[in-house]
Amino acid sequence: MWKTIIVFFALAASSDFAISAEELVPEGEREAVLGTLESWNKGWRTKDAALAVADYAEDTDWTNAFGDRFQSRGELQKGLEVIFGLDFVMAGESAGNSYQDVTFITPEVATVRSQLVRSGQQTDSGQTMRDRHINHLRVLEKRNGRWVITSHLISQAKEKGSL
């Protein structure tokens, strides 16, 4: 009997037999997860903080490339209202995402990695910045049948060889 149990667990652990979380995710979930990016992107384009945070959980944790951290959807919305009021920050345009990688940790937890390029943004002194390659890592949970962003970390890629 023990040999049968050991063989079963050995087969279950092998890559040929194991089932990944991706295989357990119902059809259409990847698109639903990616759909949460639309309110963020449109909110930025229109300077609408309420729209930008529409798909964030009440208990979200958000940190931008400059180290600003907000630990609730309400805090994030208030922070974005300030950010959207800064003309130098809002100068320029963001291109579409150069990639959007979705990974399902479980059928109810996913991560989304994406990158966009922001061109024409300015410093607070009015100088135009070089294009910013901005990376986003979001963690999402499916709560009450709806995907919400529970964590969002933003970082900026530096040009190779620059400080």
Automatic annotation (TrEMBL):
Keywords: Signal
Classification lineage: Bacteria, Pseudomonadati, Pseudomonadota, Gammaproteobacteria, Chromatiales
Domain DUF4440: from-to ranges: 37-149
Domain of life of the native organism: Bacteria
InterPro entries linked: DUF4440, NTF2-like_dom_sf, Steroid_delta5-4_isomerase
One protein family per Pfam: DUF4440
Signal sequence, renumbered to the chain: 1-18
Keyword Calcium on entry: no
Keyword Signal: yes
Protein name: SgcJ/EcaC family oxidoreductase
